[in-house]
From TrEMBL, chain A:
<feature type="transmembrane region" description="Helical">
    <location>
        <begin position="71"/>
        <end position="96"/>
    </location>
</feature>
<dbReference type="InterPro" id="IPR000515">
    <property type="entry name" value="MetI-like"/>
</dbReference>
<feature type="transmembrane region" description="Helical">
    <location>
        <begin position="133"/>
        <end position="152"/>
    </location>
</feature>
<keyword id="KW-1133">Transmembrane helix</keyword>
<keyword id="KW-0472">Membrane</keyword>
<feature type="transmembrane region" description="Helical">
    <location>
        <begin position="196"/>
        <end position="217"/>
    </location>
</feature>
<dbReference type="GO" id="GO:0005886">
    <property type="term" value="C:plasma membrane"/>
</dbReference>
From TrEMBL, chains B, E:
<keyword id="KW-1003">Cell membrane</keyword>
<dbReference type="InterPro" id="IPR003593">
    <property type="entry name" value="AAA+_ATPase"/>
</dbReference>
<dbReference type="InterPro" id="IPR017871">
    <property type="entry name" value="ABC_transporter-like_CS"/>
</dbReference>
<keyword id="KW-1278">Translocase</keyword>
<protein>
    <submittedName>
        <fullName>ABC transporter ATP-binding protein</fullName>
    </submittedName>
</protein>
<dbReference type="InterPro" id="IPR050166">
    <property type="entry name" value="ABC_transporter_ATP-bind"/>
</dbReference>
<dbReference type="InterPro" id="IPR027417">
    <property type="entry name" value="P-loop_NTPase"/>
</dbReference>
UniProtKB/TrEMBL annotation, chain D:
<protein>
    <submittedName>
        <fullName>ABC transporter permease</fullName>
    </submittedName>
</protein>
<dbReference type="InterPro" id="IPR035906">
    <property type="entry name" value="MetI-like_sf"/>
</dbReference>
<keyword id="KW-0813">Transport</keyword>
<dbReference type="GO" id="GO:0005886">
    <property type="term" value="C:plasma membrane"/>
</dbReference>
<keyword id="KW-1003">Cell membrane</keyword>
<dbReference type="InterPro" id="IPR000515">
    <property type="entry name" value="MetI-like"/>
</dbReference>
<keyword id="KW-1133">Transmembrane helix</keyword>
Length: 263, 264, 294, 259, 264
């Protein structure tokens, strides 16, 4: 039974991520060894080479510039997509007509992968920032929308009646009751979107443009500099990891009042 | 005390009927309710489970519309929550805003009123928190309080709105038995002090007898008022002594016999 | 006053003259400010051209002909890369060292990796198989991105790959050998890639296009005179991100200043033969006069 | 408000109405030359082409391939994620062991993983299935972990007080309670899977809808391309509808589902 | 009746202490509990909020381990839930499986036993559902029942396991006052019929007096047993008559005075 309710004390003694980080390190060592002895491919450089490339890229500022350019675009797309998702989500959850009007459109657009609609995107938005920011917002939009709708619908009618019995107006009810009450859902949607935003900005940069991580990865691959390519991928993983942690920390602060276990 | 019981009608429900759904899925919750709530009195409404007590109270509060009949508050027809009537919900867990501190939850009742600054709203809220004995917890969040304390916050919030009528829907049913006894005493004191009109919906015969001046007994669905009892017990009432008074024991016997439903 | 011209490019050695012309200020001298924007091949570049988002696009000849045939209204204004009279090329069919493949016949029933099907690499892989005595329909063509081709051959997931530089040299330096140079072996002086602009833009801005081509041709002249120069290597390294030593090893070959209309005919033939083109098509119709001037 | 039939009928037609008017607008825009008809063909032309594709029976081969890849990859991704998710949600040490790896891999764009995937898995279905399964894996995993964590301790104690074994606890208590969240994750995963299958077919294609779309795009056969994009959208819509129905039946007891 | 009260000890808690957390965040919930539960008796445990009643009951059920002391069930030490002891949870809403029908929820108690086929498990479950008056609802899902009905399902489930000891943690606190009265009668009848040992944790003085043979009163945290009352009221007890007996009123006064905490 012990393992079910409490974990063994030997495990608890160490911070529980220790073993996970150890596993990660072991996998990297395995990579290093295979790269040196068994896998004869330029596309599988030793980890030490990659780390060297990371160091060089960081020291000469190139990687910082590459990442900065992606982050900026990602942030813009994320902000626009999330805002649109929240606004439309509230509209769809509170106005049955808005829901009826928009739902089929939304559900049909959702499964279309971005590379399939590059030509009309280019036609409407060009091949620069606008197009990339749009694709990022488009991807961020759906999780936030779906979660906002679910969150607003889950607001307890009692909370709305409280506002009514105290004569609180509709707009104020929206901002001071509905929005905070659905915040946990909205933030969960935004966390999904954040990972998507990173992925989509990188993919968009791979298709067109001369900046950012995606372009850097492609160029390095075509220039036969796989170590530099993997350096960018390593940093990308680190970036994604820390962005998620950052949003979790924000969530923790904003939602300190929200306890999951409770029904 | 008796002056109150004979004062003019404050809130009048006449010919109230309510039917949910339509066609074959129709539920008639309220049949034809006639009820006069007198200014300043403490009225309890008891009735079997699901008979329509909450529906009735929500209609009285203007939170729901009746299918038939009218509600008048000081002569004016009630079609939406009117100023002066405040509804106290059963589920304190759902009616407090978990993202607001205790103080700001109370302030919610008044902060939006014209001419009310945030600072003033908080000041007056503090007074009411003090009345329910929670001044020390102003900065806490609801989740940090016990159930009984949370329900006290909702009481403070309701009072902060300075209602003329306070409608309470089973406000004590979700707290533990001991806390319930404490809250009974608290509500009785506040009511005596502030002189608002109180309507209490409950399943609990003891609670109704202990708190109310008059008790309206509803039938099973569709609900009608089948009896109106005057308690006539002296005030202030005491948790240990009052239940030993013969009049109390008689009322209890009568009410329970009716409710446990060995017929009507 | 200065006219802005956006050019959709691919960051490979072939656009060296364009980059030189930019670096040396030849465009500025013509009153043109060129701004390059890399895309992943013609699939993004040509729609951008049609949408008016770029004014000039670098693309392989097959894509240009296909786009023109589908009514996207574009014309070649200048040559970009042309193969020589004899091998080696920048693109080669490679297989594992010691493998028995010599001719197209040997590849019947085998797998050749190409970057995309229904495009120039695929087209000339088929043409080469046929030209060297094999049946192109008896060969399987696998889509593999260029950087992964050597891995695919090495891992026996393909028997050979039609790869481009620097992957050809990289493979040969390790455990690959060249089987053939399909471009030149099928067709000498193959006009592999060109610069194109949209018809409407050309009509409205004939002077700009002329100036652009003049500046570009100056770039070609400079490159052809400085093929081995350090400066050229540095310019190429700047946009391809390949180390200059690697570029030096690959070698830069001379560029043309005009497109030979006759050279387009066999390309069109090959496309027709392999099902990429149906109906009438006159290659001259897609050549603007600036592409013809020597 | 009172649910009168005309109002409800209006609502039912509103969505398709909006869709149709948008298409009509597009039709006018392309016909009148506002929008470059070569890049964005009129919807009627595309609709005609969809009709031709369907009636000529050209639909089934690519659709079948795409669906096959989707089904296999989706099944693998879901099963792995649920198994690992239950282990990670239930056992802290397993969670500690795998969490950093998961969190490092999760935000990586799958196209960036293509080089090593191709190196080790080749170009065939194995590679594509792995890439897609990986995309399905993460949302399902995360939701499963959350679902398993959210199992009410009271339910666990109920199983204990009635002397149920550990296996029964897992099977009868933990899995069903986590089911609403697992299914929600699987629904997100399904959407991602379709997009990824299509992208995988685009990147290393030998067939399927994705390959067709990219091939048609590269040869500028825009009408055909849009015909397939429309087919793809309808496929995604239909898959989602089917899933939602199954989900509703499977967890009819859970009031929590919305959206 | 009195034969029961004097029967030998069935479940013995000796020297039980429980401390949560460690270091400065330590909470001592139970100080030193000595308690003998006699075979077949009905024991009530009352005490102020948060004093450790649930903790005590969980330790007795083998669901939690004490920091000090031992629990013995018929002489054997309890370290995990032993066959024969069943725990009835307060939150019926959380302790029923929402994905199982009412019948299958009851069957959960026995379906895994060796030699028990699914059909037999269901058959016997039907009998118990019948006992709590829910035979007609066998195919419903818990969400389709009212709170009182749900709690009846958990009672049927507990009985289906044929426990020798039934531990109940405030089983009636979340249902409405009238339903509570009905459940009191139901539990009393079932207990008289099946002869199991019952331990009931509650906040409610009336409930404890009405149901129990003996009442253990706990102090505030860290809890100790500060009083043990014998009710000695005649059985079967009746909801209307019993509370009018002077002995009942005395017990109620005594217990409430203790609990409302005017000192110990
Ligand atoms: N929105 C609604 N739609 C349909 N039926 C409803 C609705 N609200 C209440 N009812 C029905 O009306 C009847 C009365 O409900 P109501 O909640 O007023 O009863 P109650 O006396 O407050 O019950 P309880 O004792 O459980 O608090 C019930 O049968 C209920 O099912
Ligand atoms: N897992 C735990 N970790 C830390 N403290 C705990 C834990 N469980 C209970 N406690 C603390 O132990 C004390 C006793 O808790 P318990 O739930 O047993 O009290 P109770 O008498 O059942 O309360 P209630 O009247 O609210 O049901 C409380 O102060 C509680 O905060
Ligand atoms: Mg009610
Ligand atoms: Mg407890």
């Amino acid at each position: 039974m012990a393992a079910w309710c409490t974990r063994p004390d030997s495990m608890r003694a160490l911070p529980h991520r220790f073993w996970g980080v150890l596993l990660l390190v072991l996998l990297l060592v395995l990579w290093q060894v295979t790269a040196l002895c068994c896998v004869a491919s330029t596309n599988w450089p030793p980890v030490t080479e990659i780390l060297k490339a990371v160091a060089t890229g960081l020291v000469n500022g190139e990687l910082a510039q590459v990442f900065g350019s992606t982050l900026w675009r990602m942030a813009a797309g994320f902000a626009i997509g999330s805002a649109a998702g929240v606004l439309l989500g509230i509209a769809m959850a509170t106005l049955p007509l808005a829901d009826a009007a928009l739902r089929p459109l939304v559900e049909l657009l959702r499964p279309i992968p971005m590379p399939a609609i590059v030509p009309p995107l280019i036609l409407l938005l060009g091949i620069d920032h606008a197009m990339k920011v749009f694709t990022v917002s488009f991807a961020c939009f759906f999780p936030v929308l779906v979660n906002t709708v679910a969150g607003v619908r889950a607001v307890d009618p009692t909370a709305l009646d409280v506002a009514r019995t105290f004569q609180v107006g509709r707009l104020r009810t929206l901002t001071s009751v509905v929005l905070p009450a659905s915040l946990p859902f909205i933030l969960a949607g935004m966390r999904t979107s954040l990972a998507l935003a990173l992925i989509v900005s990188v993919v968009a940069e791979m298709i067109a443009g001369s900046q950012g991580i995606g372009y850097y990865i492609m160029t390095m691959q075509y220039a036969m500099r796989p170590s530099d390519m993997y350096a960018a991928i390593f940093l990308l993983a680190a970036l994604g990891y820390s962005l998620n942690l950052a949003l979790l920390a924000i969530e923790h602060r904003v939602l300190h009042w929200w306890r999951r276990g409770e029904d | 005390m008796n002056a109150r019981v004979n004062s003019p009608a404050d809130l009048t429900l006449s010919g109230i009927g309510k039917t949910f759904g339509s066609g074959s899925a129709q539920t008639e919750a309220l049949a034809e309710i006639e009820l006069e709530v007198r200014e300043g009195e403490f009225l309890a409404v008891v009735g079997p489970s699901g008979c329509g007590k909450s529906t009735l109270l929500q209609i009285a509060a203007g939170l729901a519309r009746p299918t038939r009949g009218t509600v008048r508050f000081h002569g004016e027809e009630v079609t939406q929550p009117p100023p002066g009537i405040v509804y106290l919900f059963q589920q304190y867990g759902k009616s407090l805003f978990p993202w607001r501190t205790v103080l700001d939850n109370v302030a919610f009742a008044v902060e939006h009123r014209p001419g009310m600054s945030r600072a003033r709203a908080r000041d007056s809220s503090r007074t009411y928190l003090d009345m329910v004995g929670l001044a020390a917890f102003a900065g806490h969040f609801p989740a940090q309080l016990s159930g009984g304390m949370q329900q006290r916050v909702t009481i403070a919030r309701a009072l902060a709105a300075q209602p003329r009528v306070l409608l309470m829907d089973e406000p004590f049913s979700s707290v533990d038995a001991l806390t319930r006894l404490e809250l009974h005493a608290l509500v009785q004191n506040l009511w005596q002090k502030h002189g608002f009109t109180a309507v209490l919906v409950t399943h609990d015969a003891d609670e109704a007898i202990f708190l109310a001046d008059r008790i309206a007994v509803l039938s099973a669905r569709p609900a009608r008022v089948v009896r109106m009892l005057e308690t006539g017990l002296p005030r202030p009432r005491d948790r240990l002594e009052t239940p030993q008074i013969p009049r109390y024991l008689d009322l209890r016997h009568e009410l329970l016999a009716m409710l446990l439903g060995h017929g009507a | 006053q200065v006219t802005k011209v956006r050019v959709s490019t691919i960051p490979i050695i072939d656009i060296a003259p364009l980059q030189v012309a930019i670096a040396k200020g030849y465009f500025t001298a013509e009153g043109i400010e060129v701004d390059t924007t890399p895309t992943q091949g013609g699939a993004a570049g040509i729609p951008a051209l049609a949408a008016g988002q770029v004014q000039v696009v670098f693309s392989n000849v097959v894509s240009i002909i296909q786009a023109a045939k589908q009514g996207l209204g574009l014309q070649i204004i200048a040559p970009a890369s042309t193969t020589g009279d004899a091998p080696p090329d920048q693109a080669a069919l490679i297989a594992k060292k010691g493998s028995p493949f010599k001719t197209g016949k040997d590849f019947e029933g085998k797998r050749i990796a190409v970057n995309t099907r229904n495009n120039i690499i695929w087209l000339y892989a088929r043409a080469w198989v046929r030209a060297t005595g094999g049946n192109p329909d008896a060969v399987t063509y696998l889509e593999v991105p260029f950087p992964q081709m050597v891995d695919a051959v090495r891992g026996d997931r393909a028997d050979a790959a039609f790869a481009v530089e620097p992957f050809v040299s990289g493979g040969v330096a390790a455990d690959m050998q060249v089987v053939g140079y399909p471009y030149t072996q099928v067709q000498k002086r193959l006009p592999a890639a060109q610069y194109a602009a949209s018809k409407s833009y050309i009509e409205q801005n004939p002077k700009v296009i002329e100036g652009w081509v003049r500046a570009y041709q100056k770039g070609v002249d400079w490159v052809n005179l400085n093929l081995k120069s350090e400066e050229l290597l540095n310019i190429i390294s700047g946009y391809t991100r390949m180390p200059p030593q690697l570029i030096a090893k690959l070698g830069v070959t001379a560029y043309e200043k005009a497109v030979d209309p006759a050279a387009l005919v066999p390309v069109v033939d090959q496309m027709r033969r392999n099902g990429l083109l149906e109906g009438e098509f006159d290659p001259k119709s897609i050549l603007h006069r600036t592409a013809l001037k020597a | 408000m009172s649910g009168a039939p005309p109002a409800r009928r209006l609502q039912a037609w509103l969505g398709p109405g909006v869709l149709l008017s948008l298409l009509l607008l597009l039709e006018l825009a392309t016909r009148s030359g506002w929008v470059n008809a070569v890049l964005v063909p009129p919807p009627t032309v595309v609709a005609q082409r969809v009709f031709t594709v369907v009636t000529a029976g050209k639909l089934f081969e690519p659709l079948g391939r795409t669906m096959y890849l989707l089904a296999v990859a989706y099944a693998i991704g879901c099963v792995l994620a649920i198994v690992l998710g239950v282990l990670m949600g239930r056992f802290r040490p397993v969670h500690g062991l795998l969490e950093p790896l998961v969190e490092v891999l999760r935000p990586l764009p799958k196209p960036a993983l293509l080089p090593p995937l191709m190196l080790f898995l080749g170009l065939g279905d194995t590679m594509k299935i792995t890439a897609v399964a990986l995309g399905v894996f993460f949302p399902v995993l995360i939701n499963t972990i959350q679902g398993v964590r959210g199992v009410d301790p009271v339910l666990v104690d109920v199983a204990r007080t009635f002397q149920h074994s550990r296996a029964a606890l897992l099977w009868k208590v933990v899995l069903p309670s986590a089911m609403p969240l697992v299914l929600a994750g699987m629904r997100i995963g399904l959407g991602i899977a379709l997009v990824l299958v299509v992208i995988a077919e685009m990147m290393a294609g030998t067939g399927g809808i994705g390959y067709l779309i990219i091939d048609l795009q590269r040869s500028f056969r825009v009408v055909d391309m849009y015909a397939w994009v429309v087919i793809l959208a309808v496929l995604g819509y239909a898959l989602n509808e089917v899933f939602v129905r199954i989900e509703r039946r499977a967890i009819h007891w859970s009031g929590a589902r919305a959206g």
